[in-house]
Amino acid sequence: MNLWNRLMCYSRRRSPWLFHMNSGSCNGCDIELIASLTPRYDAEQLGVRLEGSPRHADILCITGPVTHNAVKAIQTVYGQVCGPKAVVAIGSCPATTNVFIDSRTLDGPLNRHIPVDVFVPGCPPRPDAIILGIAKAAEILSERASKKLPLDPPAEPVCMCGHSSDCTTECAAKTEDREVLL
Amino acid sequence: MSILTMLWRNLWGGSRTMLFPARPKVSKGFRGLVRFDPALCTGCAICRFRCTARAIEFKAAKGEFTWSYDPGQCTFCGRCVEGCKTHALSQDSECPPVYTTIGELKKSYTVARKPPAPRPAAAAPPAGDSQPAKSATGDMQ
Amino acid sequence: MNLTTALARLLIFPGLLFAVPFAWFFLWVERKAVALMQGRIGPPFMQPFFDFIKLLGKTTPPRNGIGGLLMKAWPLIAVSAAAGAVGLLPVLPTSGGFEGDLILLLALLELPSMCIIAAGFSSRSIFGEIGSAREAVLSVSYNVVFLLAIVSIAASQHTFRLEALAQLPATPLRWLGILAILVCLPAKLHINPFSLPNAEQEIYSGPMTEYAGPELAMWELSHGLEWVAATGLIATLAAPHLTIWWLAALVFVAISFGVVLLLSVLAAATARLAIDTTVRFYWQCTLIFAVLAVSSALFMRFRS
Questions:
Q1: Host domain of residue A78
Q2: Of B2, B10, B12, which to mutate for an interface test with C (greatest number of C Cβ within 10 Å)?
């Protein structure tokens, strides 16, 4: 890998810009995400910036179990984030819908709709755990670029009802192709 | 003027930031990961009943049972710990770790059932007729 | 002033080679100073550089047609205008900067905000339009004071040449002009309390909403270069007249650094003001500065 590629990988790890999106959360995880920018935890020491537009961000932080109304919004915003990108699911809700597992208004865990890279469990997770999750996502971004992979698609599409990859029901996760720039 | 004195004090008083990756200590009653002790578990499955998020799964079989716990599903409410009669469950003061695949943190334990407690030997003969006969020990399942 | 010295001044000092690292340095100083005053640590030293490199490596959404071409062009125009403004500054004692006069300097200083306004409108997003409208209102409001202050300083010297700016006599007019320009700087540089156009919570970063990747890197760079140009303007007005060139350069950097710190204190101490309060501030409170500057210039001109 030449010098420019190495510099690019290093810069991707050192400059994670976030966009935060709430897909029906109780706001507990959102508050803890904002708390991670306060003086005690100070995510800015890692170069983290909370951006106002999804086009500016690298890492999409999503909270909340995905409600029906939020699915389209999440897919749109995920499409608007410019590659290379990573997704962090903050809290137990986006990973597994947590206590809302039987709810009729939800549309399943987050990785049914977009590929998720890091899960930060907790209800709500502590701000230091969120910062760890963001740092891990930044590392993943930099590793992907260094290995020039077409972004690890999951080996088997993860399906919460336990089916395999030839599952024809809607719950097979979509792997969108995300390009790696270098 | 008070905002400027505040800024001044912040500037010279040093920052109160914890340098990454240092993490602050959690408070005393912090409810973290649930820990399971197979030696104490009797397989009553009260924890599965009380769990609010269905993080605990319990499968009963002939001579054994399987108890599994998924921290990703857990909401760390502590009802399972409260409900366990034998204190086989306890909650860590440790935050659950960050993971990258669904179900990565799930842990299963297969516990052989303990043999039922031996019946007490024929006890002292009943003192009088008025005393009702004590039944044998209830079967523990 | 021959071609080589002109090119050296435009490209090396105080031109592009000096201005770009100093743009990143001043951006870092502002973020770090605000963070320290808020009780945090703040970003590490090379942070704006890493941001720039990372942005260069991101993809951009496809831009079609003339609108797309314009969208790609505005950040480049903004960067070159800001870099040109820095290159024009009469920092070094002999024969000023690159050959130009005050009108050119003012035009180049204005171009980045014109580009922001145009970019918001050409990006065809609602948030861009709102942000550009706010930036336009802001620009009209602070430019009255800004331009009147500079023009009155120049008029008092009877010339529009840039060397006149560098060799101002120490009259009250000079300090009045510097004060007027200092008051306009927060609006020019989009920092609190006048950081309206790129309000992140309210309008999703305003004019920059649709920008991504290398275009955004150019916008960040032009923002940094605007810092250097604006603080450099104050530095050239305030610096004493020195003949040793490296001493003059050092004093220039030191005074710019001081102005950056002052503006960081202001940014940390205030919150974002709404548009009506901002406009009222610039038209009611600061217009008095402009009036004073113009009247003292006229007074000095008629006296001399």
A1: 3-147
A2: B10
